[in-house]
Amino acid sequence: MKSRREFLKISSLSAAGLIFGGGILDSIANNLVNNNKSFFKGPYDFTRTPTYCEVCFWKCAGWVYKDENGKIKKIIGNDLDPNCNGRFCPRGTGGVGMYYDEDRLKTPLIRTEERGKQTFREASWDEAFEYIASKMKQIKKEYGPESTALFTHGSGGKYFGKLLKAFGSNNIAAPSYAQCRGPREVAFISTFGQGINSPENTDIRDTKCLVLIGSHLGENMHNGQVQEMSDAIDKGANIITVDPRFSTVAGKSKHWLPIKPATDNALLLAWMNVIINEGLYDKEYVEKYTFGFDQLKDHVQRYTPEWAYGVTTIEPQQIRETAREMANAAPAVIVHPGRHVTWYGDDTQRLRAVAILNALLGSWGRRGGFYNPEKAEVPHYKLPAFPKPKKNWRDAMDGKYNLADLALASGVCDASIPGPDMDYAIKGWIVNGTNLINTLPNQKKTIQAIQELDLIAVVDTMPMEITGYADVVLPECTYLERYDALRISQGREPSIALRMPAVDPLYNTKPAYWMARELAKKLDLQDYFPFETIEEEIDWELKQVGTSLEEMQRVGVKKLEREFDDLYFADGEDVEFNTNTGKIELYSTALEEEGFDPMPVYTPHPEPEEGFYRLIYGRAPMHTFSRTANNPNLTDLMDENTCWVNPKVAKEWDLSSGQYVFLENQDGVISEFPIKVRVTERIRFDSIYMVHGFGHADKRMKRCFGKGVSDTQLITNVMTDPIMGGTGMRGNFVTFRTDIKKSEV
Amino acid sequence: MRYAMAIDTKKCVGCSDCVVACQTENDVPIGYCRDWVVEVMDGTYPQLEMELRSERCNHCENSPCVRCCPTGASHYSEGGTVLVSKNECIGCSACITSCPYDARFVHPEGYVDKCTFCLHRVKKGMQPACVAVCPTKCMYFGDLDDPRSEVSQILKKRKYKTLIPEAGTKPHLYFLI
User: What is the Cα–Cα distance from A43 to B163, expressed in whole angstroms?
Assistant: First the structure.
């Protein structure tokens, strides 16, 4: 074996991209690993360790590099990874800031005063677990184990989920469903028998026409999609963007349709009208694969471009021209399903319209449209069967939202507020990596639900607002300091990626696996965590698919062979879709059975009153929700959100760029902090825009406290999707309160 | 050999990844940056145009900063790259005033700092950190004297402009339009 000095000398070449690339270096790495008995702990001598990013849900795989002192220096994408192709986005690159953030949670905390006040005492891990376990046992005794729930948006959620299922509850909800992509999944499942999932199966790199409806790719930095969009631009693809705001991608589009907000369904129906009446649809595909074309044809007759003009303010000529543009590109066309689609409460129907358009254009299962994704099958170690819960959150929903294929975070929240007609209420929450205060709309209701609980335990890396309401706070170490479950994501090729610690955890922080297992011990559920360490569990799983932890530590990412379908349908191939009719359902029998419109209709939505403007929110490429708001590297790029105001509106209100104003919504809720005005032509006169995730109210996050406005605070009107319970959040209107001065808060 | 960079404004989404990647690669302290993103808007709603540019030192062939530096700290290096020797820099800031692109800043340690085209990486055959990280692959780096280099190739194919050409600095940053 080479001496450490020689190793360092060679490995310093890693900056030149050579490390582990060649045989010599591989053997050195192997030697190091094999001679290090505690290799499960991780080869800390390596100058780079594999990870997958936790700053957003795209989970790009990369390498963490350390400097000569062993301090984390930078994170670079893994060239083998299909999610990032060696290129991280700004958030992933700035992920180092999550580790270095001095405001991190540092030790377990137990609340000493009422919920909502950040008065805690430091506690030992054992004390914290004891507290949670005794409350959980008490809830089980009084109400049954089903009265507990988990909210999660992070890798560690997997282990708390297992704990909860072992305990006897299946109330496991992610706000990424009912507050985000849920309607899209239900719409595509009811049309194609298959959801979109993540990363989206959009074949952007080979598309000739990309249609974005309110989706602001480039500002929402979904890495793989942004990369492919750039490739498509290079190859001459046309982009059609529908957005009341001149988004970044609108600036790169051949057609930008500055639609009147809340009228998208009218445009989508008019596009169908043109595509059907002008015979532009893929006749062979529609004939072979779809169900209900004749009904659809009749249905859309009334939705002419002339009619849509009056609703959307988009000229008939432009509606026709863009419809023809899509048809010319078909089947290499994508009417993009978007991601955050909970807007107006009829979102499943809007996404149905999107799905139907794709079906008419024959883009599903075709190159340049939507490919057939595949996910790696990695077996899990066989555990004792989970107890079968006798009830769950659905029992508190009065028979609604049957088509929701996942739990609704807002539903679990509602089920925690006891009502006179309810014989079931949720009494205990574990919240993992999701700041529910800024994630669920209608903060008042969220807080009301929390005050009704017997237990709320929060697992996070940062003192997010939700931790202020916790009875117990469990400080998780960042993703750079821990192992997590393997990343198993869908894609053109199935792949797996490893996350391992680059460094030991700072402070008294711990990984989720350890926490969940310790808690399981207190609840006599340790049989569900048979491996003492997560490394052993991962190694076992990896060996089932022909690799090992040791190999994954060296390569980070492994692509596995596709086992199932081809990437695209073959010409004339017989395909059975997972719907009632076995066809792509233009006319949805599933929706009809549940008593909903089998084909999408246009429903007008309320408009702002005089002096009020529709609150539109979105993403900035350097931030993920509110979780990055205090990250020193990313705050350096953007430390507050601004309120985009059209110059005409600014003139009326005598506003100028740089000025701070408070906002008040239709229900009289005034923003906790003021927001900086940005006067810009990029926004319509009837709307204002801000980036989501700012306006933090917890003083323990020093860098972001009081910076900008929380859109969530102003979202008090929630338009619930009757089909699947998605929480439509774009029906809120705000006005300017220039009379309140900054010092008054 | 003349190093140059071409930046495709049609592909850049202004995400600022180039800025963070530069900071972590080159230990640029938080609060400072060697590269940055500019958004230029034109028109009235809904007739609008937008240009996004990732900007940095132009590594000019006729650099006012090199000319005005009293100690010779600002100098030309490999491939015409303009560098600052921090040991020779007295932090007088004459170069900062002379630069039409506002590409330089005083590092908290007292010397003037700026983009180096990541010469330490380029010497090893790698791309500058900003070019390597860019999710849109909107940046092209290479030798203008080598007709086969990516940057020469793209400049042959595409329309481009330089910034403030009237300053006569002969910049080595090209913006594809």
Answer: 48
- ipTM of the predicted structure? 0.96
pLDDT of residue A47: 78
| Distance from C-alpha of A603 to C-alpha of A721, rounded to nearest angstrom | 13
In whole angstroms, give the CA distance from residue A576 to residue A569.
11
DSSP state letters, A382-420:
P-PPPP--S--GGGGTTT--TT-SSB-HHHHHHTTS--T
Across all residues in chain A, what is the average pLDDT? Answer: 92
Question: Could B136 and A226 be called an inter-chain contact, meaning their C-beta atoms sit closer than 8 Å?
Answer: yes
Nearest-Cα residue of chain A relative to residue B25: A74
How far is CA A328 from each of CA A233, A252, A282, A496, B130, rounded to the nearest angstrom?
17, 20, 11, 37, 37
How many other CB atoms are found less than 10 A from the CB of residue A578?
9
Give the Å distances, CA to CA, from B52 to A121, B15, B16, B41, B49.
49, 10, 11, 9, 10
Q: How are the residues of chain A apportioned to helix, strand and coil, as percentages rounded to the nearest 5? A: 35, 15, 50
Encoding tokens for residue A217?
A: 């790719």
The whole-number pLDDT of residue A114 equals: 77
Helices (H) and strands (E) in chain A, counts: 25, 27
- Span A326-351, pLDDT tens digits: 999 999 999 999 999 999 999 999 99
Q: What is the DSSP letter of A586?
A: S
Question: For residue A313, what is the nearest residue in chain B, using CA coordinates?
Answer: B46
Which amino acid, A714?
L
What number of CA atoms fall less than 13 Å from residue B135's CA on the CB side? 33
φ, ψ of residue A559 in degrees (nearest 5)? -95, 135
The distance of A636 to chain B (nearest Cα, Å) reads 6
